[in-house]
Amino acid sequence: MALSKELTWRGFVNQTTYKDPTLLDGKPITLYFGVDPSADSMQIGNLAAAMMVRHFIESGHKAILLVGGATGLIGDPDGKSKERDLQSKKDIDHNKASIVAQYGTIFVGKKFEVVDNYDWFKDVGYVDFLRDVGKHVPLRQMMGRDFVQSRIGESGNGISYAEFSYALLQAYDFLHLHKKKNVTLQLCGSDQWGNSIAGVDLIRRVTGDETHVWSTPLIINKSTGVKFGKSEDGAIWLDPAKTSPTKFYQFWINCDDAGVEDYLKIYTMFGQKEIEQIMSEHSTNPNQRLAQTHLAKAVTEIVHGKQKTADAEAVTEVLTGKRSIKNIGPVIDDLRQEIACVQTPQDGSVIEALVLSGLASSNTEARRFLQNNAISVNGVKNSAESFEKNSFIDGKLLLRRGKAFKDTALVELG
Predict the structure, then answer these.
(1) CA angle in degrees (0–180, nearest 5) for 82-234-215
(2) Half-sphere exposure of 406 (CA within 13 A, CB side)
(3) What confidence tens digit (pLDDT) does each residue in 251-276 have?
(4) Contact 346, 353 (CB under 8 A)
(5) Strand partners, 398
(6) Residue 119 CB neighbours (<10 A)
(7) How far from chain centre, in Å, is Cα 166?
(8) Which CATH number fits domain 3-216: 3.10.129.10, 3.40.50.300, 3.90.550.10, 3.40.50.620?
(9) What is the pTM of this model?
(10) Pairwise CA distance, residues 378 & 392, whole Å
(11) Which tens digits make up the pLDDT trace of 351-361?
(12) Which strands, in side-by-side order, build the sheet including 408-413?
C-alpha cells in the first residue's frame, strides 16, 4: 500500500501542508520528528507519533529523530495554563539519555539519525538569534497563538518571555535541519501543529524554500471521549520503572472494544489483511478479547521485547485464573511486583491477610466481605475465616476481593 493511503487507513492524518499527499509516495525525502525531554520517558501518546514515523521509514524516507536538549530547558507552554518549573541541565541530560534509549528500542533495526538541538543552540548568540530568527517572525503571528491569548487574558496566569519565545526555538530547529541536512518535512502530534507551522513560515521567509508538516491526531478513547493513554495509576509510560511491562500489557488488554481496531492500526505494524482477520475473529466472541490480546502482545513486544512480554502474559494469566501459580518459576518475582504480598502460617487468618494486603480496611470490613461472598481463594469463593491447608499451591495462594484482578493479593506461607 502506498504511504499516503497507509497513513489515511491507519488514521495518521490530522493536518498537513501537502496539497497532494501522494507526493509522499515518490522519491525519498528527509524528515524529522522530535521529543522534548521534559520527563525521563515517553508516554504512549509519543509512541503513536513514533509509530507513524516507522511507516515513513518503511517507505524509504530518511528519519532524523530529535531530542530537545535546548527546548527542554524552556518547556513548551502550549496547552499549559501556567508557567512550567524549569528543570536543571543535569536533569535534562538524564532525560535525554532515556529518550534516546527509547528511540533505539522503538526503531530497532531501522535506519535513523539522532540529533540534539542543544548542540546548535549552545553556540548561538542572543543578538545573532534576534537578527537571524526574530527579524523574520511577525509579532502578530506569535500573539495570535491560542495559548498566548489564554495566558495573557484577564483570567490568565501570564507568560514569561522565555515560554513566549519557545515557538521560535522549535522553528529554528526546522530551519537548521533544513539547511544542514536537507530536511523538508516535520512529523508531529496535533498539539505541535502551531510550532511546526512556525518553522515552515520561517524557512520560507529566510530561504524561500517550501517545506511541509504532517501531523497525527490526538488519540481519543471512543468509550469515554477523553484523551487515550491514562489508567487509574496515571499516564502509561514506556519506561518499565514507571509502568511495569505487566501493567503496560494489561493496559492494552483492558482497551475498549469501540477503539481496539483503531489502536491495532496505530500502535502495531499488522497489515490491513491481518487486522481485518483479527477483528473478524474478535467479533464472533468479543468476551474473549482476542483483538486486545493481539494488541497487547504486539505493542508490549515493541516497547519491552519478547521475554518481558511473555512474562507479562504469564502474570496476567495467573491473575485472571487462566494459569495456576504452580511452577510459574521466576515469574513469581514479577507477580510480587504487581500485587500486594503477605505472609501467613498454614492455618492463618483470612481476615488478617485481607487487612494486611489492603483488600479490606479493617477486620469488620473483612468479615463483611466474607459474609457477602465477595472473597475468593485461587478463584473459588471463600467464606471461611481461616486458610485451609490444601488451598496453598507450592506454599502460595491468590486472595481476591470481587472480580477485578487488581484487587488480588499473593499470600505465602512464612
Answers:
(1) 65
(2) 8
(3) 999 999 999 999 999 999 999 999 99
(4) no
(5) 410
(6) 11
(7) 24
(8) 3.40.50.620
(9) 0.89
(10) 9
(11) 999 999 999 99
(12) 340-344, 408-413, 396-401, 375-377, 380-381
